[in-house]
Design a protein that fits this description.
Helices cover about 65% and strands about 5% of the residues. It is mainly alpha-helical. A hairpin with a 4-residue loop joins β4 (about 65) and β5.
């Protein structure tokens, strides 16, 4: 113990002038904070030397001290948790940091630095304000999308004469957006903001949150596949010029609802075999199983969009439309198709530097584009649709005529008017 005290006195003198980057701020520790840090480090190394090693023969990430926290031996594929450091300014010790043990038995390495990395982002007290603001955007966006899509579906189902293969595809696309939005709202509300649930070792709790994770992955994948169905259908109508009858809708149902089961089932099976914990809320090497088909859908829709625009432009030129009118039509068609085909997801791989204002702006833009996408699609294919709005206008007008807001005047109230009118007519008659 005396040796530890001597080391402590020496290390305190060496660390007084040291600092480190905390987010995007360079922090210098006070002598008291350095002493606290050294206490944690000494206690960690003493524990690492005395605690027994796992003897079950499993694959583990080695115990380590990462300069801030002590991490125990952790089974491969699981997540280790530790309270946020008390000695760091603006750190909230009540929050929980985490460190991911990869399936190969090595600690997760940051992709930018390629060194082992622990996630202390939630420890910064300012993080929660930024995180809360971003979370509000997700909630508002998904809620607006769900409400607008539900209204659109009510309109489509009520007006039977709007029914056609194109509208049927719209309905399924809207349902996929609604299910996707509901599942992600549940995920944010139940899992993402509940550290205790993520850490809970109870098997029933872990299974339930993993099922919710799989639901999010499935409906998100369905979202993209129904975008592909819409793109194929539009390409068939505009480029191939063949009307898709109802018998062909079965293929779209299989592509939109059944095909996503394949990548999601593979993803779920692999994660279950690896016995990953933490509600599967942290990324793994298996993410490509979901991302691969989605990227393929985006590429196919990009090709379809370019071909559709090319055909539209050629058709407009064929009827000798003025050039300016051609460009307006092509641009308008492109703007309508962009939200449908999901090309704005292409910018998602373009990451910016972490812990910067640019990252906050980037995250905000991504949240708006993804969560409000259902709202934009509902506006384009329902609320801005001239045929749909015309039928809705006629329905509202007929309803108001049949059910006036105010009671018509009684016959007794109208009698004097008739008398006055008759009197006026008589009085104006020449003698």
């Amino acid at each position: 113990m005396k040796t530890g005290l001597i080391y402590k006195e020496i290390f305190v003198l060496l660390l007084v002038s040291q600092g480190f980057w905390w987010g995007d701020t360079f922090v210098t520790l006070s002598p008291e904070q350095n002493a606290q840090k050294l206490d944690v480090e000494i206690e960690c190394y003493e524990r690492m030397m005395t605690d027994p090693y796992p003897t079950d023969g499993g694959l583990y990430c080695n115990r380590t001290f990462d300069s801030w926290s002590c991490w125990n031996d952790t089974r491969a594929g699981e997540i280790a948790y530790a309270h946020c450091p008390v000695f760091i300014p603006n750190s909230d010790p009540s929050k929980i940091a985490h460190k991911v043990c990869m399936p190969n038995g090595e600690w997760f390495r940051h992709p930018e630095t390629n060194i082992t990395w622990s996630n202390y982002s939630v420890c910064d007290s300012t993080y929660h304000k930024k995180h809360f603001a971003g979370l509000i955007v997700w909630y508002i966006g998904y809620s607006a999308s769900i409400i607008s899509l539900t209204i659109s579906l009510i309109i489509f189902f009520y007006f039977k004469n709007l029914s056609c293969p194109r509208i049927t595809l719209h309905k399924n696309l809207f349902f996929s957006f609604i299910f996707n939005g509901v599942s992600w709202i549940l995920w944010f509300a139940i899992v993402a903001e509940n550290v205790d649930l993520v850490k809970n070792p109870d098997k029933a709790v872990q299974v339930s949150c993993k099922i919710l994770n799989v639901m999010c992955q499935y409906f998100q994948t369905c979202n993209y596949f129904w975008m592909l169905c819409e793109g194929i259908h539009l390409h068939t109508l505009i480029v191939v010029a063949v009307f898709s009858d109802r018998s062909r809708l079965t293929h779209y149902y299989l592509l939109g609802w059944v095909a996503p089961f394949v990548p999601v089932t593979i993803y779920t099976t692999l994660r279950a075999v690896e016995q990953h914990t933490g509600c599967w809320m942290f990324e793994t090497d298996y993410e490509f199983i979901i991302a691969g088909p989605i990227i393929a859908v985006l590429v196919i829709n990009l090709v379809l969009l370019l071909n559709i625009v090319r055909v539209l432009c050629s058709k407009l030129r064929a009827v000798n439309t003025p050039a300016q009118h051609d460009y307006k039509k092509a641009v308008r068609a492109t703007l309508i198709l962009l939200p449908l085909l999901g090309l704005h997801y292409i910018i998602m791989p373009v990451q910016v530097s972490t812990d910067t204002i640019g990252e906050q702006i980037y995250d905000l833009l991504i949240a708006i584009m993804i969560s409000f996408q259902g709202f934009f699609v509902a506006c384009i294919y329902c609320f801005f649709n001239g045929e749909v709005m015309d039928k809705l206008y006629r329905f509202i007008r007929n309803f108001l005529l049949a059910h006036p807001l105010s009671n018509p005047p009684s016959s007794s109230a109208r009698a004097p008017k008739k008398a006055t009118t008759a009197y006026k007519k008589t009085s104006t008659t020449p003698a």
